[in-house]
Design goal:
Keywords: Coiled coil, DNA-binding. GO terms for molecular function: DNA binding. This protein is of the alpha+beta class. It is built from 3 helices and 3 strands, in the order H-E-E-E-H-H. The protein is rod-shaped and about 75 Å long.
């Protein structure tokens, strides 16, 4: 069975698909915003916690690290933990949105 490439798509069906995808994206966005991600520096001197909206809720520094490192090195360790947290958040967000992205790609094909 061949389909007519010039046939008009069913607009009601398309609108329903868009509505469902919009609802799914909104549900996933709420889920992402409610997430909490925890990350550490390489040797666990610093631990950060951030929410799905990108706001950090805590940065904990091991007291031994405060005594062991100068301010410059300690700031690099904090930055490492922060960047690890942002990376984990990006990966977790992408994983949550992957099904919607794949679904949209299949509709386009």
């Amino acid at each position: 069975m061949t389909t007519d490439p010039y046939a008009m798509p069913d607009m009601d069906e398309l609108l329903e698909q868009v509505r469902k995808q919009t609802e799914e994206v909104q549900r996933i966005q709420r889920s992402v915003e409610a997430m909490e991600v925890k990350a550490h520096s390489r040797q666990n001197e610093v631990t950060v916690v951030l929410r799905g909206d990108g706001r950090f809720t805590s940065i904990d520094i091991d007291p031994r690290a405060v005594r062991q490192y100068d301010a410059r090195n300690l700031s690099e360790i904090v930055l490492e933990a922060v960047n690890n947290g942002l990376q984990k958040l990006a990966e977790a967000s992408s994983a949550k949105f992957a099904p919607v992205i794949e679904s949209a790609k299949s509709i386009e094909a």
